[in-house]
Write a structure and sequence with these properties.
Elements: E1 7-13, H1 18-28, E2 34-41, H2 47-54, E3 59-61, H3 69-82, E4 87-90, H4 99-104, E5 109-113, H5 125-132, E6 136-143, E7 153-160, H6 167-191, E8 194-197, E9 200-203, H7 205-212
Parallel strand pairs: 1-2, 1-4, 2-3, 4-5
Antiparallel strand pairs: 5-6, 6-7, 8-9
Helix pairs in contact: 1-6
Length: 215
């Protein structure tokens, strides 16, 4: 990709899209060297889709109700391919992706989850953390694979669980960190200088510098 070309993001959402808004704000401010090529939503009336339209983005409603997983995913992949998307970002997209979808964008699909994975995967992670009684939880940005919340973790942020927390207060503090680290993770992936070693996401800039210095 030449310096004149920008990376192209595809955003998938199902609801309010608060992480999409944080990403879009950072793109607009030049803090993410990319453009949002398309926003895809699977639920009619989702506030996130309306916000994408308000911002003048290419916003697509592709309803998923009544469709098999891969049948739906093929429609979404076709749109992403047509828009030449480099990186797919799930922003509250409430569907498990099919192996077909994952195979089309290997190590190019990001998701954010409100826990320190592998703890508390799946729905209501904040409630799970409270019920388990942990003192620290947080959020994780990870690559998406065929399994639920199981891909390699790119970046995490910890959030203390306070004695007087409930699901709403804990969720709000975690969300603040989600908005911060999702953009950081996007920048890390787009910049290159990383590799996967087994399940570990490792930055390789230091190794490159050392090699150049003959160490």
């Amino acid at each position: 990709m030449s310096s004149a070309q920008k990376h192209r993001l595809g955003i998938l959402l199902s609801g309010r899209g608060s992480n999409f808004i944080a990403i879009a704000d950072n793109v607009a401010a030049g803090r993410i060297p990319a453009e949002i090529a398309v926003v895809v939503c699977n639920r009619p009336g989702a506030p996130g889709l309306e916000e994408a339209q308000r911002r003048g983005l290419d916003a697509r409603m592709i309803p998923s109700k009544g469709l098999e997983r891969e049948q739906y995913d093929r429609q979404v992949v076709e749109v992403l391919r047509s828009k030449q998307v480099d990186l797919v970002c799930l922003a509250g997209f409430m569907r498990l992706l099919s192996p077909y979808f994952v195979s089309q964008f290997p190590n190019r699909i990001l998701n954010i989850h409100p826990s320190l994975l592998p703890a508390f995967p799946g729905l209501e992670a904040q409630r799970q953390a409270l019920e388990y009684g942990v003192k620290i939880t947080g959020c994780s940005v990870h690559f998406v694979d065929e399994n639920l919340d199981a891909g390699p973790v790119i970046i995490q942020s910890s959030v203390p669980v306070l004695d007087d927390d409930n699901v709403e207060t804990l969720s709000a503090r975690i969300l603040e960190q989600e908005h911060r680290i999702y953009s950081e993770a996007i920048n890390l992936v787009l910049a290159g200088g990383w590799r996967l070693e087994g399940h570990r996401f490792l930055r390789t800039q230091d190794a490159t510098l050392n090699a150049a210095a003959g160490r």
